[in-house]
Structures are given as C-alpha cells and as structure tokens.
Amino acid sequence: MRKVKEKGSKGISYFVDKYRIFILFAILLIISIAFAPNFFNAFNLTSIMKGASLYIFLAIGMTIVMICGQLDLSVQSVMNLGAVLVIGLRTWSGFGWIWSILIAIAAGAAMGLINGLIVTKGKIHSFITTLGTMTITSGLVFLYTHGGSISTEGDFALGDLMDQTLIPLFTLRVIITVVAVLVFSLILNRTRFGRAFYMVGGNKDTAWLAGINTNRKITTAFIISGSMAALGGALFAISQNSAVPNMGTKGISPLMVAIAATIIGGTSMAGGKGGVFKSFVAVLTIMIIFNALTCFGTGYEVQVFANGLVLAAVVLYEALAIYRADKIKGIRTELLKEVQNK
Amino acid sequence: MNKKIEKQGSVSQNIAHEKQSGKILDITSRFGVYGILIVLIIAGIFINSNFFSLNNFKNVIQAGAFLGILCAGMAFITYSGHFADMSAPITMALSGIVTISCISFGIVPALLIGIGAGVLVGVINGIVIGKFKANPIIWTLAMNFVVSGIIRWVYSNKQIYPDVESGGSIAGEMFTNISRTYLWGIPISVFIMIGLLLIGQFVLSKTRYGKQLKIIGSNIDTAKLTGINVSRNILIAYIIASFAAALAGIFVTSFGKVGAYYNGEGYDFRAVTAIVIGGMTLSGGRGNMIGVLGGVLTIGILSNLMTFIGIGTFEQQIVTGAIFILIVWINSNSLRKLGRDDA
Question: For residue B270, what are the contacts with CB-CB under 8 A and spacing of at least 6?
C-alpha cells in the first residue's frame, strides 16, 4: 500500500532533478520581477540578453566539451583571439566583415583542433592541455595587438546593426546567439552525430566498441568549443566597435561564468550528461541574479558572492544526491519490506 | 633442449634489456624535470655570462619561493588524485587580509588568526570533497567565488595597509619585514619553502598517512575497500594545502605591503603548472616533492633565461605554455612506455 506513495514522491524528486535549472530560472525570475526595482522593463530585459550573449557562446562549447568528459580552460583566451582578430583584420588589414568573422572563427577552430589533437594523440589530460594553450593563446593575442586595444575607427555600421532591437527583447546579436543555441541543441538531441558525444562521455570504451571514432569525436568537440568562443568574442567586439586583449581578466571572468553555468545547467563534469539549452537557461539565470542584485543597488562584490553561492549550492546538491544514492546502493528495499511485513 | 635454453636466455636477455631501458624511462618519469633544468642552465651559460652566477640563482629561487610554499601544500591534493585547489588564490588573499586587520592584537596572534582563516577554507573544502565527494575543481572554484565575494563585501572592495591598521606600531613593521628577513643573505621564505618541501617529501614517502594517500590517489575505491578512512585523509590533505596557501599568502601580502582580495591571483594555475611539470600526474598517486621543487625552479629559470635573451613578456607566455605541454608529454609518454599509465 505504501509502495504507491513512495513511487509518487520519487517521481517528483526525479522531475525536480531533471528540470531543476528551469525551476531555478522561473523562481529567480519571479522573485526579481516581484521585488527588484526597475527590473521588469523592456530595456533592462534586453540588456540582460545582450550581457548573456557572450557567455552563452562560451557555454555552448564548454557544454559539448564537458559532455565528452573533458574540460576546456582555453575558451576565454580564444574568445579574446576572436575579438582582436575580427577588429584587427577589419581595421588594420582592410578585410571585409564577412572575411574577418570567418577568419576569426577559423582561428578559434584551429586552436580547438590543436587542443583536441594534444588531448587525443598526445594523451595529455584536457585540464593540462587547455591550461597550456590558454597561456599560449593569450600570449598570441597580446602579440597581435602589441598589448593595446583596437577600435573600428569610425566604422560603426555593423556594430550598430548588431545592437539594434529587431524583435522586442532581441537584438541581432542575441538572435544569432539563440539560433546557435537551438542549432546545437537540435544537433545534440536529434542527430546521430550529436548523440555520439554523449556516448563518448558516458563510456569511452563502449562508444569505441559501438563504432564511434572517439578521438575524432573529442577533437570535434574542442573544435566546436574553439570556434564558438571565437565567434562569441568576435560578435561582442563588433557590437562594442573595439577589442581589448585582456577582456575578462579583471572582474568576473567569462571562463568562470561559462563553467559555472554549464555545471548549474546540469552538465556533469564526468561526462555523458547535460545539454546546450540547459546551459543557455543557466547563463540567463546567472545574468538575472547579477542584474537583479544591481537593481537592488548592491555592488559588484555581492554578485561575485551570489554567483559562487549558486554554484556551490548546485555542486553540493549534486554531491549529496550521489552520496545518498551510494549509501543505499545495493540495499534491496523490497526484500527489507518483505521481512518487515512478516 | 638446447634451443629451449637458448630461448630462455634470449628472453631473460630481453627482460634485462627492457629493465635497462625501463630504468632510464623510470628516471625520466621521476626526475625528468631536472634534465630539462640542466639543459636550460647549460643553454643559459652560453647565452649570457651573467646568467651562471650565484646572485642570479639567488634571484630565481627568491622569486619562486612563494610559489614553492604554495606548491608544497597543493601537491598533497594532486597526489591524492583531486587535481588542484582552485581556491588557493583566495585562501592566500584571505589569510593576508585577515592578518593585517588583526594586526593591532600583536604580530603573533594576528598571524595565527590569519592562518586559521585560511585553514578554515581548507576544512570546508575537505569536508565537502572528502565526505560528500563533490567535484574538486568545481567546488573549490565555487569556494573561490564565495570567499572572494565575502572579502570584497566585508572590506568594501578596499585595500588595507599594515602600517595604517597597526597605527604605526611595531607590529605593522614586523609584518612587512616577514618577507624581508634574511638568513645568510637568503630570504627566510626560501628556507621555509625547502623545509616544507622536505617535510612533505618525508610525509609522503615515509609515513603511514603518505602511503594511504598514495593508495587513495591510485584508486579511491580500492582504498575504501582496504579500510582506509578516505574522507578523513582527504580532509587532512586539504587542511595541509590550505595551511601552505595561507603561509604563502602571508608572505605575498607582507611582500606587497598591502592586503587585498586580488593578492593570490594567478597562483592557482602557476602552482598546477609547477606541480605537474615536477612529475606529479593529475591522475594521482605519483610523483614526489623533489620533482615539485624542480618544477618551481624550472619555471623560474625559464622566465629568467627568456628575460636575459630579451624575449618580450607576450612571447614568454607562448614559450612557457608550449614547454609546459612538452614536459608533461615527455613525462606521461615515458610512463606509458613503462606500462604504468593506461591513459
């Protein structure tokens, strides 16, 4: 008789666990709308979307890399590479916008390829590999800009277009971001190419036995991560009409926001779990926290604190769930119940 | 019959041969970093006559001392298979800033409170990671955010100065003198670094705790099955790491004469670099403190050498990153050839 009740409660906890990022998002959004002054208006919501755009691009790549069971620390410096390349090629080398963006993405993809090859062929842990390439890339970025910033020098047309609100709440840059999220979400969920990433992360050996070229899959994940980071940086630089080589090294680092969002969104660092859309919602959640705190008039330090607190809570929640599952692992409840009934 | 013996002979010869090449690989995997160090030093002698001098080496070891103190603790975490302590920068900043704000109680209580504050971070990390098995990188990263937010909040984003906080008393001066105290012309931080590394080496190789940590690092499930108290041992590793980080933080703060939330920035990745170059693999259970010292020295000599050649800061970054990956590859490759690493 009690069985039914237990099943029901398990269903709710399963539901909460699966959709926790959407629940978190909804709760925080409602709280912010209800209590934060000047939060719920078109201008502020647009600015949240605009602020989130950069982080979302990093989070897309980070999610796919983490689904493969790897980690990419180099996304932030690759983002800067994309930013300085797109402006530098346009201003200094006189390329058109299309070519500048394409070359910037290609450069990001090349960094991803290098990461992937070192991880798979050199068999070095991705934490170390990307730590090394992070240093290398940030050196390259500084070398390219000679340590200074680059601007488009009066060429503001595309930058203005990027920040124009085409649909309410959505500027062109945000639309591109959302399209990228939807495309990668669909690829990961619906195609054989995308599902294979989950297999590689879940169990590499099984994936190999199932006929997946695991090394190529991991390399592909790093290439996607690199090119998305470069694209995000490039679009951000275009809308700012300038690029600096050390964006994100002071203040809240985009790398940390991307990692935090990916984890909060439910992608596990062990691999095989997660999704791009959930990471997207997680970035928006973090942005809402930041923005609402600013609306309350609190300083930047509280934002850092809140970001850490949410991340810590999610990590602790996940760890506790596994800890509890480990404790009752191997205990067969139905046998215990049989004993109790007798 | 004869053939059989011959065959056996050739097999044993083969084994002997393998043993010999294995020995070389073994040494490469254990102390490979010193080979690189010697190559760098020899290159340095040819490049600049000022390079091979006592004074220059003193500079290098002095510059690396803070990093070495931090690594001596963090190596325990890497050894136990828990990657790295990403909350080290904020532990450093916290111990420094707390020491300065307590400086009016006198130098010794202030230092004790400062180190205690740092160790508190380690205790929290150790409990959550050891007991509840949270992901070590992500959890310590979250801790870094949280504590950084708290420090900025409490001190409202300001920097604090030891001479101002102590009201011009002797304690403030003593605090800034901590990293300016010399013994036979060598700063005291160098002795502390070497002392900590030697103690660490002793603990890792000779004590029961070190052996248990090695089993935990090699295979945490096996360790649990053999009856080792895994969560307590990991907690101790994090306490050791945070103690070393707090000590390093006090030196850095004392050196800069200013307490601020950004005092430890960049030390997390530099420490990982030094530890991993030194032959401690991220998979855990392998490496030693002598290697870690080699890693710290290699980073120092490399940047020193590049400055002598006249390579710019940006190019230095590129070379450092490339050499980092190269050394790790040499290490892991020789381990793989020995059949000791399946990764």
Answer: B67, B299
Q: How far is A236 from A242, CA to CA, in rounded Å?
A: 9
Distance CA B74, CA B117 (A): 17
Contact A139 B134 (CB under 8 A): no
Q: Could A269 and B137 be called an inter-chain contact, meaning their C-beta atoms sit closer than 8 Å?
A: yes
| pLDDT of amino acid A248 | 67
- Domain A39-341 in CATH 2.30.30? The answer is no
pLDDT at B25: 67
The Cα-based distances of B83 to A17, A330, B67, B138, B275 in angstroms read: 27, 30, 17, 11, 10
Q: Is residue B41 included in any domain, yes or no?
A: yes
Q: Residue B287 is part of which domain span?
A: 33-337
| Cα nearest neighbour of A139 on chain B | B314
**Residues B184-227: tens digit of each pLDDT:** 878 888 899 999 999 999 998 899 999 999 999 888 888 888 88
Residue carrying structure tokens 């693999």: B281
A270: phi then psi, degrees, rounded to nearest 5: -75, -15
Residue B226 within any structural domain of the chain: yes
Instruction: Answer whether B32's CB lies under 8 Å from B334's CB.
Output: yes
Find the Cα–Cα–Cα–Cα dihedral B115, B118, B122, B128, rounded to 10°: 140
Residue B187, strand partner residues = B182
- Residue A284: burial class (beta carbons within 10 Å; 0-12, 13-18, 19+): buried
d(CA A44, CA B203): 56
Closest by Cβ to B321, choosing from A136, A299, A303: A136
Element (H, E) at A150: strand A150-151
Q: Domain count of chain B?
A: 1
Q: Is A298 helix (H, G, I), strand (E, B) or coil?
A: coil
pLDDT of residue B336: 77
The one-letter code for the residue type at A251 is G
Question: Following CA atoms B1, B4, B10, B13 in sequence, which dihedral angle do they give, to the nearest 10 degrees?
Answer: -90
Nearest to A305 among B153, B269, B273 (CB): B153
Between chains, do B332 and A124 touch, taking CB under 8 Å as contact?
Answer: yes
CB contact under 8 A, A71 and B137: yes
Is position B15 within any domain? no
> Which residues of chain B are within 8 Å of residue A139 when distances are taken between CB atoms?
314-318, 321
Cβ-nearest to B141 among A259, A300, A306: A259
Instruction: Work out the number of other CB atoms within 10 angstroms of the CB of residue A106.
Output: 15
**Alpha helices (H) along chain A:** 2-18, 20-35, 42-67, 75-91, 97-120, 126-145, 157-162, 172-190, 192-202, 204-209, 214-240, 254-264, 276-295, 300-327, 333-341
Interface test with A, best of B224, B317, B320 (most A CBs within 10 A): B317
The answer to whether residue B264 is domain-embedded is yes
Dist CA B87 CA B90 (whole Å) = 6
CATH code of B74's domain? 1.10.3470
Q: What is the pLDDT of residue B28?
A: 65
The amino acid at A241: N
Of the ranges A1-10, A158-167, B253-262, the best mean pLDDT one:
B253-262
Assign A76 to helix, strand or coil: helix
> Which sequence spans correspond to the domains of chain A?
39-341
